[in-house]
Design brief:
Elements: H1 16-29, H2 48-63, E1 70-74, H3 81-96, E2 100-104, H4 105-115, H5 124-133, E3 136-140, H6 149-164, E4 168-173, H7 186-189, H8 198-202, H9 204-213, E5 214-218, H10 224-230, H11 235-239, E6 261-266, E7 270-272, E8 275-284, E9 290-296, E10 301-303
Parallel strand pairs: 1-4, 1-5, 2-3, 3-4
Antiparallel strand pairs: 6-8, 7-8, 8-9, 9-10
Helix pairs in contact: 1-3, 2-3, 5-6, 6-9
Length: 308
């Protein structure tokens, strides 16, 4: 029979507990896989508006939680609004253990509609409550849903609660905040549909509250998504002088699968059958592994030859 002094106790590892805590915070944040590797280091800006937006996002993170308002990123598709929003969320989780959550408006509305069905695994309350209560909410693509009264009331339910209880909210929208002047000839203006504004999508009352809740960060620039597909067309020009052109989100470390990669050097265009490629010397920021990657701009693909 063991005495009290001879009993063994199980003690949690002090090094593992913080990592487990971070893992749970990231799981609850519900960041979509496509955006999980988007951080401030991976953001590429092409003009002063994008540069200022990145700097303001970093300032927000550094000051959190002593920030008076959230942020509203406004601009066209592909300029980095979601990227910066996720970078804020990820950094605050990693550096300040903030409880945060990401939600895409279109996905939220789909989940809510499904929650009313008899076979739904979650109720409306279970969908909505975490969005209202979480200390930091990233709401992506505000105004995407059709501007029906049900959609507006759904958005108001969450935003009004966060407004009333001073909870930090990061929003992004493709819809302009003010009416856009038409660039068409006067003879065609009357026949063209008028572009909606954000206030027309979500209503004046909610728009007014968001203007009080958030600082406006306007972003403009080239659509990064279409630039990936242009790589094949501009291959000769972009690789002249050994410039590095492989899109960052296509590269990953063959050893640890991380996507934070430094492109160190590149070759001039080479030929593989009918396809041209550029060979890039890379280093993984996660495990420091150095490796070669071949980027084929015509098919927008990357493969990894045998590395020494």
């Amino acid at each position: 029979m063991k005495t009290k002094d001879s009993l063994e106790a199980v003690v949690p590892c002090p090094d593992c507990r913080p990592q487990e805590g971070l893992k749970k915070l990231f799981e609850r944040a519900a960041i979509p896989p496509r955006y999980f590797d988007r951080g401030f280091e991976e953001y590429s800006w092409h003009n002063k508006l994008q540069e200022r937006a990145q700097l303001r996002a970093i300032e927000y993170v550094n000051a959190f939680p002593d920030v008076p308002r959230g942020l509203l990123f406004s601009g066209p598709c592909g300029v980095g609004k979601t990227h910066l929003s996720v970078a804020i969320l990820k950094t605050l989780i990693q550096e300040k253990n903030v409880h945060a959550r990401f939600v895409d408006e279109a996905e939220l509305l789909r989940r809510l509609q499904y929650s009313y069905g008899p076979n739904s695994p979650e109720t409306e309350r279970e969908v909505m409550l975490p969005l209202s209560e979480v200390p930091l909410l990233v709401w992506d693509d505000l105004g995407t849903g059709r501007p029906t009264e049900w959609v507006r009331e759904t958005i108001r339910t969450v935003i009004n609660h966060r407004y009333t209880y001073n909870k930090q909210t990061i929003l992004s929208t493709n819809w302009p905040l003010k009416p856009q002047k038409s660039r068409l000839p006067k003879s065609r203006v009357a026949t063209e549909p008028v572009q909606n504004t954000l206030v027309e999508r979500i209503g004046k009352r909610l728009f007014s509250r968001i203007m009080e809740m958030c600082e406006i960060i306007e972003i403009d620039g080239p659509d990064a998504r279409t630039e990936i597909h242009k790589a094949g067309l501009d291959f000769e020009e972009k690789t002249r002088g050994s410039q590095l052109i492989a899109p960052k989100d296509l590269l990953s470390c063959p050893k640890c699968q991380a996507k934070k990669i430094d492109q160190l050097d590149s070759s001039r265009p080479r030929q593989s059958g009918e396809d041209q490629f550029i060979e890039i010397s890379c280093r993984c920021k996660n495990c420091s592994e150095q490796f070669l990657a071949r980027f084929f701009p015509k098919t927008v693909q990357v493969n990894y030859p045998e590395n020494p």
